[in-house]
Amino acid sequence: xGADPTVVGPYLASVLGDDRWRSVTVEMVAAGMSNLTxxxxxxxxxxxxxxxxxxxxxxxxLATAHDMAREHRVISALVPTPxxxxxxxxxxxxxxxxxxxxxxxxxxxxxxxxxxxxPGYADEPAQRRAIGEGLVDVLADLHAVDPQExxxxxxxxxxxxxxxxxxxxxKQWDATRDRDRPGMDAxxxxxxxxxxxxxxxxxxxxxxRLDNCLLDPGVPGRIRAVLxxxxxxxxxxxxxxxxxxxxxxxxxxxxxxxxxxVTALPGFPDRAAVAERYARRTGLDLAELSWYVGFAYFxxxxxxxxxxxxxxxxxxxxxDTSGYADRIDPCVERGRAALDDGAI
Length: 344
Hints:
It contains ten helices and nine strands. The model has no long low-confidence stretch (mean pLDDT about 90). The chain has helices spanning about 5-15, 70-80, 95-100, 125-145, 160-175, 180-195, 240-245, 270-280, 290-310, 330-340, and strands at about 25-30, 35-40, 50-55, 90, 100-105, 200-205, 215, 225, 235. Strand 2 (about 35-40) and strand 3 form a beta hairpin. Helix 4 (about 125-145) runs parallel beside helix 8 (about 270-280), helix 5 packs antiparallel against helix 6 and helix 6 crosses helix 9. It has two domains: about 5-105, Phosphorylase Kinase, domain 1; about 125-340, Aminoglycoside 3'-phosphotransferase, Chain: A, domain 2, CATH 3.90.1200.10. By secondary structure, the protein is of the alpha+beta class. It is about 40% helix and about 10% strand.
């Protein structure tokens, strides 16, 4: 399972200096297609004592996407900033323990919204608007953090970031292509030829969206924690906004399988309002936003292709990936439409 409780318990008891961890229960969190997340609880202890363990998947992976030390480093650096993140507790880079590096962090109690809002949560349109605005504000807060001031000045190479991103995900697509997809190749080429000038460098989350955040159980507009930092680096902040908008359908739209319909519920701000609030909070010019949305669809398609490839290789045990290959072409078409017709 990737986190044997008979190994995890004694190890945590040793590194945390607390014998109550010597015997633990380990439960995999049933979400995500990439890094594995486990809830670790002391045997017989209350649920509030649980911690979270993160480790890479057990199969072949893209080299840098599952770097536990990087993920641990960025979360640790952001703890004293306005960006809500869990407190990190321990990083283990000794692969002899669990077969891969892993880290442990505090468990933040919050509402995790994936495909729908929980019954009785954020029933009022004003609460839903608050969730949308809260998500935008936290993203703006992240992009306002000075990497040098939090010890992340060398966390990435922001120069030429978007051009490298296009090359990286094109390479990922080439390595995992399931069949000939001319539209995907054409979109990659077009993006490479039209990379916009970066306005400002900053810390980029790499996968910022509603279901990578935990919401406050009592105050829906408050974000308790931003999770899944495995693709974070230094680069162009508008890459995060572009991807966020890809995951932000509006009421009445024909939704592809890549999207949850949560933000289409009454009260959530539409994409134009999201972009306007972000621009107001950051001062960034969104004239080239369509390119970033087009790139986000391309990146998403490449990620889905990677999931399809890992599934074919038997590295996605326990995950239902049926129909994933059918998601690629609709993403490509929406990426092309963003470039031709505008992002929002």
